[in-house]
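Re: weekly structure request thread

Next one in the queue (280 aa):
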Amino acid sequence: MSESVLERGPSVEPSAFTGRPSGRWSRLPVRFPRRRAISVLSVLVGALGWEIVSDFVVHDPLFLTGPSAVFRRFLEMVAHESLLYQMQVSGIEFGIGMLVSIGIGVPLGLALALLPNLRAALRPWISGLYSTPTVALAPLFILWFGLGLQGKVVVVVLVAVFPIVINTEVGVMQADHDQIEMARVLGWSGHQLFLRVHLRSALPFVLTGIRLAIGKAIIGVVVAELFGARAGLGYQITISSQAYDTAGLFAAVGILAVAGVGLSAMVQLLENALAPWRRR
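Done, posted below.
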């Protein structure tokens, strides 16, 4: 073996460090459209199976209503009933609750990761409240804060803030030790080290926590509205169930499901843009 070969050593492609495909693989089209097509196909197959079971197996719209009947009922509720208003009320409760949850959860998660004494003091409370069933506390919060917007927002924050707190804390603590040491060698300290290393490490985890919190917040809205409300999709679900309007009930639940999927997809796109190294 020649000395030149020994001096050069094994050749390593830059993609081995960047995680990007090299060679002919880099020329392949992105696979995300195919994955989206698989997701859409999965939904269509599920809806078709639901329709078949409803029409040919159950035969009773009181117990199960197919997607076509649910969609027709949705159009009727939009045209002749106050469904849009119910959606607006729930949307306001959800939006305010999520903003408050993010405003509390991200700073608190950062503080827990950077301050060990604070983490030791608050961790039992966070673990206990996170594992407490929302249904058990929702009536109490409605009693304390009333049937208006304030009580609903408190319930939403109670269930949505903890995924953000926990994921933010984990993200900061997952910062690479070698990167931290290198940053200190370069003279970074204080806010520079925090912004360029710790916060960059935590960003994907924060967005993941927000995605998890979206589903929790939607559940919180419905739970809060089930325990005493004069408007909202949870109130619409209660009215539809009392009237044995199965199609109307599924229409309200479907709106919540579509909203959750859409908002989670938007946060996922944001995560792909801000943290492309974690793109899935």
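The CA atoms of residues 168 and 206 lie 5 Å apart. The chain has a mean pLDDT of 78.
Next request, please.
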